[in-house]
Amino acid sequence: xxxxxxxxxxxxxxxxHTPGTRDGYALGMTPLLAxxxxxxxxxxxxxxxxxxxxxxxxxxxPAAPTKAPESTIxxxxxxxxxxxxxxxxxxxxxxxxxxxxxxxxxxDAVYSIKPGDGSKDRxxxxxxxxxxxxxxxxxxxxxxxxxxxxxxxFDGTVARLSPTGEVEVLADTFEGKKLNMPNDVIVARDGSxxxxxxxxxxxxxxxxxxxxxxxxxxxxxxxLSLLTKDVTSPNGLALSGDGKTLYVAEYGNGTVKSFAVADxxxxxxxxxxxxxxxxxxxxxxxxxxDGVKVDxxxxxxxxxxxxxxxxxxxxxxxxxLKLAGASNFCFGGEDGxxxxxxxxxAIHSARLKVAAIDPKKLPGATK
Length: 367
Description:
Helix content: under 10%
Structural class: mainly beta
Distance between the termini: 106 Å
CATH architecture of the largest domain: 6 Propeller
Number of domains: 2
Largest sheet: 5 strands, mixed
CATH topology of the largest domain: Neuraminidase
CATH class of the largest domain: Mainly Beta
Strand content: 35-45%
Number of helices: 2
Mean pLDDT: 85
Number of strands: 27
């Protein structure tokens, strides 16, 4: 672009340039302007109008439903009814000989069942055999090293039931006051009997607090000691594999607590492993943990959230099996891959992908 051309436009009236002018500005811009004008206006061609209809989107296939992650613990098969017709099934225990022991609180009985006998429609008197009736309203059962059943009973006692049917009361008072409502019981590796007292008395004739107790049976007479009263409506209980952690279900608080167990059965801590009422999954709302077990991997199992809940040691729910009315359960089966669950008037079973218990460690297994 020349300076003379620019100088002239500042002092004289500029006339339209015609094709062929030697002005560099005109030679450079005229074709571009012509092209632009030709696109903007074409004689005889009407301007395009906007369509009045809204463009219709091309239909797309609906998204496939999101599939829930498959459980790493429970088989996808449905639960099966092992027995029915009970009044209120509780405290199941599977023995190494293939016998399932079950308490019936309202029916005031202890029963035995053979889940592997191929029977169908088992009921009391038909596939559900009576071990003891009346039985002191039993709620929890365990087996000691001599093959005796140890029962936590709602009549306020913990008793031993021999294979021949004799009953011996092991504990019914603490510091001169009656126990309230023993609920669940375990036998530790050293032979100690540990149980929960679910009730709370007036503090005069009966013990005025909830508690977890230990019975030492090593002496000439049973010795009862209080492990902790830092619990609310204690129900199920279990020890970790190494015996250093005690888990207790607080029925009233919807919480599972963990306690450290030191040498000499000194118990401390009492922190919440999980508060089931605070869960935001399907089981949100009041959730009442009842039975408690620890599996071979160290996970803690309890009832709540509409069935069974499996919790890792960090307090995270890792599996949930839906079963209405589930109250207590036990591990069993020849391979340790079955869980038996009490729920109201029936006992159910569910298969597992991994063994929850080593069959060699089932109650009554030969050491």
